[in-house]
Write a structure and sequence with these properties.
Blueprint (H helix, E strand, L loop, with lengths): L30 E8 L6 H9 L17 E7 L2 E7 L9 H13 L5 E7 L6 H7 L8 E6 L8 H12 L7 E3 L9 H9 L18 H17 L7 E10 L4 E9 L2 H8 L4 H18 L3 E9 L7 H5 L13 E3 L3
Parallel strand pairs: 1-3, 1-4, 4-5, 5-6, 8-9
Antiparallel strand pairs: 2-3, 7-8, 9-10
């Protein structure tokens, strides 16, 4: 099996979220199933998912707990369809939003066929890895994905010590070394996953790569640029709501609101003379244009909603449309 030889996809290279393509009858011996990617925050689960499906559907940043939603990435091969669930990193929550993130990750484990524990193989296994390993279902096939193998020390004895620390987490479970940024290192992992799936149907059309709508991905791309540009200044107390996407013949107009908890965070995001918001908007727009293969006019608002992460209702529906009342918009003209 070669991950670079999927079934023929739509002739357009544009992003495929929901499609109108028919779901075909699988050939004899076709395998399919759902695979949970679990692990402590910031071990590379989202990067791994993006490389597997060949598109940027999950955002990444050096900041832990970047992933909030349970995101499905779909990889269709000639002999199998693999539906990967990128789950929020399992950690000890400190607010209601954190509790929801951990609940989402644990819920994913109850509805999958294979569990892949993703670890950072360049550092020894720690308490966070053990915490997660102890909570994995024992009645499901399990694999350990040793990500960041390109950062392993050159000494074979040091390498073996690191690998052994993870093998001890789940004795008898195969450990496969990968580098999530390099698709050529994922062949063994894909083969191991497919071998553990049962014969089954196509769950999605072969040209679909995610279960999330395009609007959701746009919001995530904006949030990614906020995390990358502000780092620790505006950490996880933000949400992005894409309020409108209006497609024209030559231009798509996108309106989005950035929700923060404090006025000081609003000031950081806007920046002196609106410079920070402009940089965020420009970078997000470029990523979004790659998504739709077209020009985008992006309009951003910043709004203050104190303690939104503590609100049960707000956390459950943070993708709702917020009233446009707080900050003057920043418009990022397409170039």
């Amino acid at each position: 099996m070669n991950m670079h030889d999927p079934v023929p996809l739509n002739s357009s290279p544009a992003f495929q979220a929901f499609t109108d393509s028919p779901i075909p009858i699988p050939p004899p011996g076709f395998r399919s199933g759902f695979i949970a990617l679990v692990g402590r925050p910031n071990v590379g689960k989202s990067t791994l998912l993006n490389t597997l499906v060949g598109e940027k559907i999950a955002i990444t940043s050096p900041i832990a707990q970047t992933t909030r939603n349970r995101l499905q990435g779909i990889l269709t091969l000639p002999t199998a369809q693999l539906i990967f669930l990128d789950t929020p990193g399992i950690h000890k929550p400190h607010h209601r939003l954190g509790e929801i993130l951990v609940h989402n990750a644990q819920a994913a484990l109850r509805a999958v066929d294979v569990v892949v524990l993703v670890v950072d193989s360049s550092t020894p296994a720690g308490r966070g890895d053990a915490f997660i390993a102890e909570r994995l279902p024992q009645d499901l096939p399990r694999l350990i994905c040793g990500n960041k193998a390109d950062l392993l020390p050159l000494s074979s004895s040091e390498q073996q010590a690191l690998i052994s620390s993870y093998e001890q987490l789940l004795p008898g479970t195969p450990l496969i070394l990968t580098t999530a940024l390099d698709a050529s290192t994922l062949e063994e992992l894909l083969q191991a996953i497919t071998a553990r799936l049962l014969e089954g149907p196509y769950y999605y059309p072969p040209d679909q790569i995610t279960d999330q709508p395009e609007r959701f991905i746009m919001g995530e791309l904006i949030r990614e640029q906020i995390l990358l540009h502000t780092r620790e200044e505006v950490p996880h107390s933000i949400a992005v709501v894409v309020e409108a996407v209006n497609e024209g013949e030559h231009l798509t107009r996108v309106t989005a609101s950035i929700i923060v908890e404090r006025k000081s965070q609003k000031g950081i995001l806007i920046g002196k003379g609106g410079e920070m918001l402009k940089r965020i908007g420009q970078a997000a727009r470029l990523q979004m244009q790659k998504l739709i293969l077209g020009k985008i006019y992006l309009e951003l608002f910043v709004k203050v909603r104190p303690h939104w992460r503590r609100s049960e209702a707000t956390c459950a529906i943070w993708a709702m449309s917020w009233s446009r009342t707080d900050a003057p918009p920043h418009s990022d003209q397409p170039k």
